[in-house]
Amino acid sequence: MTNNFNTPAEIVDANIECGVTKANLPLLKMILLGIMAGGFIALGAATSNVAVHTISDVGLARTVAGVIFPVGLMMIVFVGGELFTGNCMISMAVSQKKVTLLQMVRNLVVVYFSNLVGALIIDFLIFYSGELDYTSGALGAYTIKVALAKVSITPLAGVASGILCNILVCIAILMALSARDIAGKVWAIFFPICAFVIGGFEHCVANMYYIPAGILAASNPAYVAKAEELYGITSEQCASVNALNSLSNFIPVTIGNIIGGAVFVGLLFILIHKKDYSRK
């Protein structure tokens, strides 16, 4: 009887080969796949916001969001996309000298900004679709609240939360590689991503939706008034949700995501499965 899953060692080998493929993608294809992945993650974020914006219990809200958000990574795995956080595991291929560090850096930089473009497209489409008007503008107010919390994060918290997030995201990707059928891949992705959302950890690509969406929402006086009514958020606080202040989130969270994916998962798995521990 054959196993319907790959072993951890086989997963590492498969991911190394994936890293080689990713590092050698033609530039235009890399950009287009990055845009697609950023859009998919943004759609998961936007729809999970709709589901939870009227739930006051934090634990319940995060659990509901955790059930919906994984659809973004599922779409990437099943139909294609280049996701910055998952691509941090190209470090596996670098460690085995299958690709160069420069190739990895090129991929991460191109994919990061391509993910941003994809997420921004969804940001603007959501804003102009009128979706934030739901519940008399409460969704717009909630969008501001989420973005305000993210731009107010401390650098240390951003790095630590980013590490925790990308450990789970990268484990979800490796678990998807372990499964040999689509049902197995769905569940392999679902639980780690659900856990990261419930944990409230920071994902730089998801934040490419959450923060710009909050900036757009804060430009609407009706949403600003609703945010003050529902959450006591002042107009001055709404004004602090801006592009400049977003860097206080994106810089530490991106650093944390890189460490979580490239080191805590990528290099750790290489150390476990590729180092020869036999006595000589």
Q: For the terminal residues, how far apart are their CA atoms? A: 36 Å
Q: Which percent bin holds the helix content?
A: over 70%
Number of helices: 14
Strand content: under 5%
Q: Could you list the spans in which at least 5 consecutive residues all have pLDDT below 50?
A: none
Estimate nothing, just give the exact number of structural domains. 1
Rg of Cα set: 19 Å
Oligomeric status: single chain
CATH top-level class: Mainly Alpha
Mean pLDDT: 96
Main beta-sheet annotation: none
CATH superfamily: Glycerol uptake facilitator protein
Secondary structural class:
mainly alpha
The CATH topology annotation reads as Glycerol uptake facilitator protein
The count of strands amounts to 0
From the coordinates shown, what is the CATH architecture?
Up-down Bundle
Order of helices and strands: HHHHHHHHHHHHHH
Described by the principal axes of the CA atoms, the overall outline is elongated
